[in-house]
Amino acid sequence: MSLSLSAEQPAVPADADDGVWLECIDCGATFAPFEDVRYTCDDCDGLLEVRYADHPTFDDFEGRGVWRYADALPLSEGVTAQEGATPLYEVPRLEESIGVQAVRIKHEGMNPTGSFKDRGMTVGVAVATELGVDRLACASTGNTSAALAAYGSRGGMETLVLLPAGKVAAGKVAQASLHGARILEVDGNFDACLDIVQDLAQQGEAYLLNSLNPFRLEGQKTIGLEILEAFREDYDAFPDRIVLPVGNAGNTAALYKAFRELVQAGALAESEVPKLTGVQAEGAAPMVEAVENGADEVRRWDDVETRATAIRIGNPVNAPKALPGIRETGGTAVAVSDAAITEAQRDLASEGVGVEPASAASVAGLRKLRAEGIVDDDERVACLTTGHLLKDPDAAAAAGSDPEPVPAETDGVLDHVQN
Ligand SMILES: Cc1ncc(COP(=O)(O)O)c(C=O)c1O
Ligand SMILES: N[C@@H](CCOP(=O)(O)O)C(=O)O
């Protein structure tokens, strides 16, 4: 089996429910979508994808936000906090300094809990309701836990989050806590947290809502659909490239799936598919290593470090879905330094776009690839910024300027400002 852009629409299996089923990307085994809880293939342990008997075209979408794309999702409604419909900002100074025809910033930090995870959770929690589970769990570098806690509480479910102790930004822990999650701080990194939460889920202790869950990725497809619709409206053409930060590689997998389904629907030509371009921090770059080496599998990095804590991940679980996405679309992957990430965070902030460090990696990656001549000057590019600046107030304060003490009287303030 391979996840190819030119794959034929599969035959509908007997276990499909209203034209929806789960299929293993490795062996092709199919499963009913909502009868039992499963995350991977019963037969070979491969990753699962949600499959549909029919795919909508752009004309079929109506409404606003994630649920505008209900015809491309496994359910018609979900536990919602009005996620999606995020802004696509123009950044003329950045465009000029990087030197490409157009750069637009798809700011996913403008979702209800401040990251793209909300798009996945609105669908994932709806499926949890359909399956009748009452306890949700995730491992997290922060944003997944904030979204899980918020959407879980909205859906009236118990939530359990496993975080790498001391490695999660303050805003995210505060969100998970106030939305009522039980926060379990693990003496290990994110990948160790995910190993544990997978064990708990296999034992039936909780419903796993990391991106290993194929339903969650369905919600994240809508990022790609929104970008394509907006570019079509503004430029009468799709973007040449989408640059995005990569951690567990869920978004890369989800965007690729969105494109494959549009190709199958006849709404997007294979030649129009944007080049998926992943960016990782130098200290946590297993996907970049695999792309550079032309490898089919990603080697797990046990020691990972970066100031961009959201992408401090050494074992991207969605690599088998994401690697074909990068290759088949003609994209690439690049690693950037923490210093370059901070610089990009400042560049975005200077155009009024406030993002957390991991998000800025996309812009740092674009700058590097343009400087190396891998991105051409005539390209139209969308950079994904995945989380809001206030998620990581410590990183923002460190990247910004220090407050200046002044006396409590006007002349003193004026004197200080003029000098
Ligand atoms: C802010 C932020 N950016 C990027 C990522 C990476 O996204 P993905 O895991 O889908 O590659 C994450 C989490 O993984 C994140 O929280
Ligand atoms: N950055 C993520 C890491 C977990 O990724 P997921 O997409 O598999 O849930 C986070 O915010 O926890």
TrEMBL record:
Pathway: Amino-acid biosynthesis; L-threonine biosynthesis; L-threonine from L-aspartate: step 5/5
InterPro entries reported in the protein's UniProt record: Ser/Thr_Dehydratase (IPR050147), Ser/Thr_deHydtase_PyrdxlP-BS (IPR000634), Thr_synthase-like (IPR004450), Thr_Synthase_bac/arc (IPR026260), TrpB-like_PALP (IPR001926), TrpB-like_PALP_sf (IPR036052)
Cofactor(s) needed by this chain: pyridoxal 5'-phosphate
Region of interest (Disordered), ranges: 392-419
Binding site for pyridoxal 5'-phosphate: 143, 247-251, 386
One of the Pfam families matching this protein, by short name: PALP
Keyword annotations: Amino-acid biosynthesis, Lyase, Pyridoxal phosphate, Threonine biosynthesis
Domain Tryptophan synthase beta chain-like PALP: from-to ranges: 80-387
The keyword Amino-acid biosynthesis is assigned to this record: yes
Enzyme class: lyase
Catalytic activity line of the entry: O-phospho-L-homoserine + H2O = L-threonine + phosphate
EC number, as in UniProt: 4.2.3.1
Keyword Lyase: yes
A GO molecular-function annotation: pyridoxal phosphate binding
Biological processes per GO annotation: isoleucine biosynthetic process; L-serine catabolic process; L-threonine catabolic process; threonine biosynthetic process
Residues modified to N6-(pyridoxal phosphate)lysine: 117
Family note: Belongs to the threonine synthase family.
Function: Catalyzes the gamma-elimination of phosphate from L-phosphohomoserine and the beta-addition of water to produce L-threonine.
Protein name: Threonine synthase
